[in-house]
Design brief:
With 290 residues, this protein is of the alpha/beta class. Helices cover 56% and strands 9% of the residues. The chain has ten helices and six strands, in the order αβαβαβααβαββαααα. Strands 3-2-1-4-6-5 form a six-stranded mixed sheet, sandwiched between helices. Helix 2 links the parallel strand 1 and strand 2. The longest helix has 47 residues. The protein is globular and about 80 Å long. The N and C termini lie far apart (101 Å).
């Protein structure tokens, strides 16, 4: 074969590879665009269904550095530009002084977004390590400390709403934890008034799947920061619930959709909570009709 023919073959192969790469890129791009559209639509629906954001709100978006909170901020910034209702956004990150925490990552990222933000430095890491024995779950105490700090910061910043990045899977996991270990039919509310009545917590990603959020965050290359405080703890009950949900999702996705829908369609008279439904009054009505 002549040299010119070899060159022609090589160029053809190169062009074929490039065409295949371009096709894969377009497919990936289309896939990401579809997930982005889905997340934005589901977030808008949740905000509307539960009246999460109203005109003039100042929404404090709690940015941990994980995929969920990055996606939350990204989606709310889009909705802020597109929604007919005007509202403000302020991003807040709590630097809990975990060893090795890359403190410069989020400020740099938030500056590139041009969003108003505040970094709150408070050493809850040392408190948790001091109070919780080695090998025990730190999540409960860490969450309480973090919640108290965020409530205080919300008041200082004049925030009317506190937005958290919990999604559909978090809600289902909490539901199963309460069902199996707490003896309650209880989950995470999409909108919650704090015990003192001073703060409203919202979860705009309540309708979004974790798998979609993770795919979107990876595609957007958000600067993800793992939680070194509890991320390495094995055998957490919540992890077991996550595994259970993921298994069910693979076996039959409709089962998970049905579980989530069930939380929106409660029939108190067909449960056993005497505080939720007046069975005595029902019995009296039945006697009157006899």
């Amino acid at each position: 074969m002549a040299q010119d023919e070899l060159v022609t073959v090589d160029v053809s192969r190169l062009r074929a590879r490039r065409a295949a790469d371009d096709a894969r890129s377009r497919t990936l791009s289309n896939s990401v665009a579809a997930i982005q559209k889905l997340i934005r639509r589901q977030t808008g629906e949740a905000i509307t269904d539960f009246g999460m954001i109203t005109k003039g709100d100042r929404v404090m978006v709690c940015l941990s550095g994980g995929a969920d909170s990055h996606t939350l901020l990204d989606t709310l910034l889009h909705l802020q530009r597109m929604a007919p209702v005007r509202f403000e956004i302020v991003a807040v990150n709590l630097d809990q002084k975990q060893p090795g925490f890359p403190a410069e990552v989020l400020p740099h990222y938030l500056k590139t977004l041009g969003v108003d933000f505040h970094i709150v430095e408070q050493d809850t890491y040392s408190i948790v390590k001091d109070k919780i024995p080695e090998g025990k779950t730190t999540c409960s105490l860490c969450s309480r400390l973090r919640r108290g700090i965020l409530y205080r910061v919300a008041s200082e910043l004049g925030a009317s709403k506190i937005a958290l990045g919990h999604h559909r899977d978090d809600i289902l996991q909490t539901f199963l934890l309460n069902l199996f270990y707490g003896g309650q039919l209880k989950a995470m509310p999409p909108k919650l008034l704090s015990d003192d009545g001073k703060h409203v917590v919202i979860r705009p990603l309540a309708y979004c799947r974790e798998v979609d959020i993770k795919k979107y965050a990876a595609a957007r290359e958000f600067p993800i920061i793992p939680c070194d405080l509890c991320g390495s703890q094995p055998n957490l009950k919540r992890s077991a619930m996550r595994t259970l949900i993921n298994t069910w999702e693979k076996e039959d996705p409709s089962r998970i959709r049905s579980m989530f829908t069930a939380m929106t369609q409660v029939t108190p008279s067909h449960l056993l909570d005497r505080h939720l439904f007046d069975f005595d009054a029902q019995a009296a009505r039945d006697d009157d009709t006899d």
